[in-house]
Specification:
β3 and β4 form a beta hairpin. Helices cover 36% and strands 33% of the residues. It is built from three helices and nine strands, in the order ββααββββββαβ. With 144 residues, it is an alpha+beta fold. Strands 2-8-7-6-9 form a five-stranded mixed β-sheet. Strands 1-3-4-5 form a four-stranded antiparallel β-sheet, with helices on one face.
């Protein structure tokens, strides 16, 4: 098998959660200062949630290149490279979520690694090709 590379739209989960909840709290604080009824305040927060979601996704983008070969899976981010030996991987799960996929790499002797694939406010990536390559590879792959 030759090396195959796939560009995946991933998010930095910590940055995403921090920015989402920080902006939600900030929006709530600002909304509470509006001299209007509680119903207007709640509705104003509800209408800002799509903007908060958009900004959180944009700020936490962390594109990655997944390279799969017979012996190694390499995940390269802008400032970091993670390499995993195929023989150390027990299985890989792709858990479908509304905003993308959660890739969980289970190892034989270490705790699992998680990578969040984002499809909100993003261009198409190579997720389907990665799915097909993992299905055809010797590593156990489950799509749920």
């Amino acid at each position: 098998m030759i090396k195959q590379s796939f560009e995946i739209n991933t998010l930095h989960r910590g940055k995403y959660m921090l920015s989402f909840f920080s902006l939600l709290i900030l929006g709530s604080i600002l909304s509470s200062q509006i001299p209007a009824s509680e119903l207007v305040k709640v509705i104003s927060i509800l209408f800002t949630i799509p903007l908060i979601l958009y900004l959180s996704v944009k700020w936490s983008k962390n594109k990655s290149i997944w390279t799969l070969s017979d012996k190694v899976l390499t995940i390269q981010f802008e400032n970091k490279i993670e390499t995993y030996e195929i023989e150390d991987i027990d299985n890989i799960q792709s858990l479908t979520r509304s905003g993308g996929n959660l890739y969980v790499i289970h190892f034989k002797k270490k705790s699992p690694k998680r990578f969040w694939r984002n499809k909100l406010f993003s261009s198409d990536d190579d997720n389907l090709e990665l799915h097909n390559a993992l299905t055809a590879h010797s590593v156990e792959y489950y799509k749920m």
